[in-house]
Amino acid sequence: MAKDESQNAAVLSQFLQPERLARLESVLDSRTSSLTVVLDQVKNSHNISAVLRSADAFGLSRVHLVGESFHYSPSISQGTERWMQLSKHADPEEAIAHLKSEGFKIVVLQPEAHSEREQKQAFPVSMLPFEEKLALVFGNEGLGVNDKFSNAADIHAFIPMSGFVESLNISVACAICLFSSTITKAAPEQRSAPLSPTDREELKNIWLKTGVRNSDIILKEIETRQNED
Prior knowledge:
Layout: H1 3-13, H2 18-30, E1 35-40, H3 45-57, E2 62-66, H4 74-77, E3 85-89, H5 92-101, E4 105-109, H6 112-117, E5 122-124, E6 134-138, H7 147-152, E7 155-158, H8 170-180, H9 197-211, H10 215-228
Parallel strand pairs: 1-2, 1-6, 2-3, 4-6, 4-7, 5-7
Helix pairs in contact: 1-9, 2-9, 3-8
């Protein structure tokens, strides 16, 4: 993190109660940047909001949104969009290029029957290599995952189901997949790698600016005073 950002973080930390700052540090310790969710042309604000809430609950630091416009419902997201970094991409090609450049393996989530029809080898989500950098792609409510993502996928995965339905609501499917990233032989424990020290400090600085009311005004005032000195 740049020196100025580090100084800003030190300043803003003073405006949080010790308990609040400790909570922020605790959540940062559980955040990961090696697991992310990609919403491909998802339009329903309820679904987007629920995915953001699940992403926060299971320790993700970033969600990728592919498409033109997105809306979320605060009553569903419970304000988690404040703590989630959102990356927006105009189309699948842009998103794929970015994710690949970051070293992510693209995982396309589709119903088991769909993979069988297309004769693609697919794995249950519980068997995904969550120790690696994975981008879980969920498609549009009606159209599913864009063919661009399917063709670029490193892994195809599915949620095993035994009922008459072949698919689940996107937000439910996402929550199940993210919970799978915590499952070990003993007890639930995050399997994806924690944030790097640099990423942790950068995210902490963003959160401090979010958590301290009028943070921009405070930092500008301090900068003005320092310049006067």
